[in-house]
Amino acid sequence: MEGDSSKGNKGSLKTGGGSNDPRGALIVLEGLDRSGKSSQSARLVSYLEGIGHSAELWRFPDRTTSVGQMISAYLSNESQLDDHTIHLLFSANRWEKRSLMETKLKSGTTLIVDRYSYSGVAFSAAKGLDLHWCKAPEFGLPAPDLVLYLDIPPEKAAERGGYGDERYEQLEFQKKVAECYHALRDSSWKIIDACRPMEEIEKQLQGIVLDNIVACKVGKPISQLWSS
Ligand code: Z5A
Ligand code: MG
């Protein structure tokens, strides 16, 4: 099943590497906590490498940077920050990786990204921040070629592996996050039924991702998020 809107997320187009070299695809996995993003991202990268594609696993937040360490302290309740401030830090954490992201894509490496700007907007908007305000700092980041949304009812996700101690891992909050994700769907999204067995989902994702990688290789330019 595809995303339910025909409205694209892409702004003004920007060329690929400035050469005719095939580029990699920017593929993002999104979904509620415990929907299986990290499991499926890792499996996808292993699969792609196994069949000879250049692919890397990325995740946001990237907790290895100094901004990422501030985010990590916040998520584990070791520090308190204003909602707007933490929102901008999450966004800064993506911007600090933008240049490397583009370099990798232009050199032909496909990036499988575990959470991206959609998490940023959905989680902050679920706290009550204005959706348009939340989107603004993301304008101009590379737009994903494909968003795989792992769709699962919040109650079902909560049964998996148990929520941990991080601050957003609460059922009522996750329900609000699901509504905000819904408002962000566009034509780059594929909605994946994440209630099925892991192996079944894995197979489905492999087919979708391979098609997308081929489309990027034949000249689809890299575009920018939400700039229109
Ligand atoms: N956040 C934000 O606010 N703003 C931002 O800009 C960004 C993030 C980028 C940290 O995320 C928090 O930051 C997150 C959003 C917020 N909120 N919270 N809480 P994180 O990515 O570090 O969170 P995580 O620790 O990786 O957990 P996760 O993402 O919630 O889980 P997941 O990756 O989707 O699921 P999983 O780890 O692959 O699987 C979870 C369990 O379910 C595990 O036991 C699996 O074996 C099991 N599982 C997975 N798939 C299945 C299937 N199909 N069947 C049965 N069991 C399954
Ligand atoms: Mg995860």
UniProtKB/TrEMBL annotation:
Record-annotated Thymidylate kinase-like domain positions: 29-204
Positions of the UniProt region annotated as Disordered: 1-23
Known pathway: Pyrimidine metabolism; dTTP biosynthesis
UniProt-recorded Gene Ontology molecular function terms: ATP binding; dTMP kinase activity; nucleoside diphosphate kinase activity
Keyword Transmembrane: no
Superkingdom: Eukaryota
Entry keywords, A to Z: ATP-binding, Kinase, Nucleotide biosynthesis, Nucleotide-binding, Transferase
Protein EC: 2.7.4.9
Transmembrane annotation, as ranges: none
InterPro entries in the cross-refs: P-loop_NTPase, Thymidylate_kin-like_dom, Thymidylate_kin_CS, Thymidylate_kinase
A Gene Ontology BP annotation from the UniProt entry: dTTP biosynthetic process
Any single Gene Ontology cellular-component annotation: cytosol
This protein's record includes keyword Flavoprotein: no
Family: Belongs to the thymidylate kinase family.
Protein's name according to its UniProt entry: Thymidylate kinase
Organism: Linum tenue
Lineage per the UniProt record: Eukaryota, Viridiplantae, Streptophyta, Embryophyta, Tracheophyta
